[in-house]
Amino acid sequence: MTIRIGILGYGNLGKGVECAVKHNPDMELAAVFTRRDPAGVKILTPGVKVLPVEAAVGMKDQIDVMILCGGSATDLPVQTPGFARHFNVVDSFDTHANIPQHFEAVDAAAGESGHVGIISVGWDPGMFSLNRLLAGAVLPEGRDYTFWGKGVSQGHSDAIRRIPGVKDARQYTVPVDSALASVRAGENPELTTRQKHTRDCYVVAEEGADLKRIEEEIVNMPNYFADYDTTVHFISEEELQRDHSGIPHGGFVIRSGHTGWDSEHSHVIEYSLKLDSNPEFTASVIVAYARAAYRMAAEGQKGCKTVFDVAPAYLSPMDGAELRKHLL
Ligand SMILES: NC(=O)C1=CN([C@@H]2O[C@H](COP(=O)(O)OP(=O)(O)OC[C@H]3O[C@@H](n4cnc5c(N)ncnc54)[C@H](OP(=O)(O)O)[C@@H]3O)[C@@H](O)[C@H]2O)C=CC1
Ligand SMILES: N[C@@H](C[C@H]1CC(C(=O)O)=NO1)C(=O)O
């Protein structure tokens, strides 16, 4: 059975999903939907239509899973619950503080419509979340740390682009060397958010925009920048394209813990990612969870799920018998 995928929102992540579908033989791209004029949105998959977002519901019988590729700052809080009323959906919602309320909104919509909505899929939240859960369950007596970068956070870059007067932006997340060194030395330090990372923003402003206002909106932005030491550089469009065109990223989750009657034995669990393309990797994770959403819905499941609720077997294109050959 071929899983028919819809893409809603065609930015970095939407382009990544288009590419990821191509790498999954059990899937096909049914359509791409955009809020912009479709004539101005060029995709790479021959024979697939780009349609206005208003046309999506009319195609609900032709799409098994709609993948929502909008921005977490302002798009997904509206789009994911809205489209969960009509489709099985997957999103990458990553405004960490607001995930519980996003879950509730999607659960109400998907539960009522009988669809599956898997939210906050990607690498953080997503793969890193799973690894923090597993490490914490296995080593209850311990402490874990998450470090990102140096790399381009799509969520933070998107949040800056939503500020009036901003034409384009890239945000680099930079781990603080001394914090990294202390964790790696096994010192188990207590670190605040501000002590772990700094944020470096490169912004192309619209002609005549109030740069001071833009800088203040960035550095004071709750959930994204307010808890970090943040630097803002205003540059030209040419400089951005020349010096900041890539979207690499990565990071790691590390947990050190103890076992033994006197906690005499130490253990370290580490999971790391090195990503040439943050959007393409994130899209690859999302597409695997689209397979899970399709299968879970086919079993009659409904409502909102996170990566914690999805058994790993749902992600694989292999069936149970084939999968069991790969336990080792
Ligand atoms: N969980 C995780 O690990 C990760 C999560 N993410 C999340 O993915 C979200 C999307 O990131 P990303 O794809 O980089 O964001 P983009 O800014 O590239 O795209 C967001 C939306 O903006 C619109 N858009 C795109 N390009 C343009 C343009 N040139 N002019 C006007 N509108 C445009 C598109 O909607 P439309 O086509 O309708 O106009 C698109 O869906 C992030 O906000 C982040 O939260 C990202 C990486 C990892
Ligand atoms: N959600 C992030 C993925 C990781 C990277 C990150 C950060 O640099 O702050 N936090 O989580 C993204 O949008 O790229």
TrEMBL record:
<protein>
    <recommendedName>
        <fullName>Meso-diaminopimelate D-dehydrogenase</fullName>
        <ecNumber>1.4.1.16</ecNumber>
    </recommendedName>
</protein>
<comment type="pathway">
    <text>Amino-acid biosynthesis; L-lysine biosynthesis via DAP pathway; DL-2,6-diaminopimelate from (S)-tetrahydrodipicolinate: step 1/1.</text>
</comment>
<feature type="binding site">
    <location>
        <position position="199"/>
    </location>
    <ligand>
        <name>substrate</name>
    </ligand>
</feature>
<dbReference type="InterPro" id="IPR032094">
    <property type="entry name" value="Meso-DAP_DH_C"/>
</dbReference>
<keyword id="KW-0457">Lysine biosynthesis</keyword>
<comment type="subunit">
    <text>Homodimer.</text>
</comment>
<dbReference type="Pfam" id="PF16654">
    <property type="entry name" value="DAPDH_C"/>
</dbReference>
<dbReference type="GO" id="GO:0000166">
    <property type="term" value="F:nucleotide binding"/>
</dbReference>
<keyword id="KW-0220">Diaminopimelate biosynthesis</keyword>
<dbReference type="InterPro" id="IPR010190">
    <property type="entry name" value="Diaminopimelate_DH_Ddh"/>
</dbReference>
<dbReference type="GO" id="GO:0047850">
    <property type="term" value="F:diaminopimelate dehydrogenase activity"/>
</dbReference>
<feature type="binding site">
    <location>
        <begin position="34"/>
        <end position="36"/>
    </location>
    <ligand>
        <name>NADP(+)</name>
    </ligand>
</feature>
<feature type="binding site">
    <location>
        <begin position="10"/>
        <end position="13"/>
    </location>
    <ligand>
        <name>NADP(+)</name>
    </ligand>
</feature>
<feature type="binding site">
    <location>
        <begin position="92"/>
        <end position="94"/>
    </location>
    <ligand>
        <name>NADP(+)</name>
    </ligand>
</feature>
<feature type="binding site">
    <location>
        <position position="249"/>
    </location>
    <ligand>
        <name>substrate</name>
    </ligand>
</feature>
<dbReference type="GO" id="GO:0019877">
    <property type="term" value="P:diaminopimelate biosynthetic process"/>
</dbReference>
<feature type="binding site">
    <location>
        <position position="148"/>
    </location>
    <ligand>
        <name>substrate</name>
    </ligand>
</feature>
<keyword id="KW-0521">NADP</keyword>
<feature type="binding site">
    <location>
        <begin position="69"/>
        <end position="72"/>
    </location>
    <ligand>
        <name>NADP(+)</name>
    </ligand>
</feature>
<comment type="similarity">
    <text>Belongs to the diaminopimelate dehydrogenase family.</text>
</comment>
<keyword id="KW-0547">Nucleotide-binding</keyword>
<keyword id="KW-0028">Amino-acid biosynthesis</keyword>
<feature type="binding site">
    <location>
        <position position="278"/>
    </location>
    <ligand>
        <name>substrate</name>
    </ligand>
</feature>
<dbReference type="GO" id="GO:0009089">
    <property type="term" value="P:lysine biosynthetic process via diaminopimelate"/>
</dbReference>
<keyword id="KW-0560">Oxidoreductase</keyword>
<feature type="binding site">
    <location>
        <begin position="121"/>
        <end position="125"/>
    </location>
    <ligand>
        <name>NADP(+)</name>
    </ligand>
</feature>
<feature type="binding site">
    <location>
        <position position="173"/>
    </location>
    <ligand>
        <name>substrate</name>
    </ligand>
</feature>
<dbReference type="InterPro" id="IPR036291">
    <property type="entry name" value="NAD(P)-bd_dom_sf"/>
</dbReference>
<feature type="domain" description="Meso-diaminopimelate D-dehydrogenase C-terminal">
    <location>
        <begin position="122"/>
        <end position="277"/>
    </location>
</feature>
